[in-house]
Amino acid sequence: QDPLINSITFSNLSPLIGDVVTCIPDAVDPDDDVLTYTYEWYNQTTQSLLGAAEDVLLDASTVVGGNEIACTVVAMDPFGATAELDASFTLGNSLPVIDSIVLSDTFPESTDTIDCIVTASDADGDALVTSIAWVNENTQVTIGTGASLVLSPLSVQPGDSLRCDVQVFDG
Questions:
Q1: How far apart are the C-alpha atoms of 41 and 73, rounded to whole Å?
Q2: What is the DSSP code string of the chain?
Q3: Which residue, 132, 139, 136, is CA-closest to 166?
Q4: pLDDT value at residue 123
């Protein structure tokens, strides 16, 4: 008799780029024969083969957030009888990462212009939007927005500490 694959589950319920996911079949053989399995992973969004093993690495060169990823399993008994089933999941969106924040001048004068230089990345390759707010830590007042800030004696005094607060959003 042919084997039966009841279901397929994945080792990770919310995978992201960079994760390894295992395709786990729940199969039985009515004759109690030992089953062997073959696997194929596809990016259904791009119609490309991702691998032919039980595990697949969700690599940024082959997948992006939102792609539909499928695993097809074939179970075979020693006599060549087979069963096939596939299951899929949607790859989640990886959050962007702020790699570094550097101030152009760490000892500015009260009328200088300083820049908040942000380097950020996104494993999905999404376009990034950066939001920057400048805060005078002594007064806890937001004194500007944007990457550059022109200082003024009206907003900062000698000895005040400034910081740039950064948020990065992906598309």
A1: 9
A2: ---EEEEEEES-SS--TT-EEEEEEEEE-TT-PPPEEEEEEEETTTTEEEESSSEEE--TTT--TT-EEEEEEEEE-TTS-EEEEEEEEEPPPPPPEEEEEEES-SS--TT-EEEEEEEEE-TT---EEEEEEEEETTTTEEEEESSEEE--TTT--TT--EEEEEEEEE-
A3: 132
A4: 87
> How many residues are there in the chain?
171
35 φ/ψ angles, rounded to the nearest 5 degrees: -100, 145
Under the banding of pLDDT at 50, 70 and 90, the label for residue 110 is confident
pLDDT for the residue numbered 125: 83
Does 51 have pLDDT greater than 80? yes
Q: Categorize the per-residue pLDDT at 124 as very low, low, confident or very high, splitting at 50, 70 and 90.
A: confident
The token pair that represents 117 in the structure block = 């230089």
Give one word for 83, left, alpha or beta, with left for phi > 0 and alpha for psi -120 to 50.
Answer: beta
Measured CA distances, 134 to 85, 122, 137, 145, 150 (Å): 55, 24, 9, 6, 11
Query: Residue 159, class by beta-carbon neighbours within 10 Å (0-12 exposed, 13-18 middle, 19+ buried)?
Result: exposed
Return d(Cα 71, Cα 131) in angstroms, integer: 39
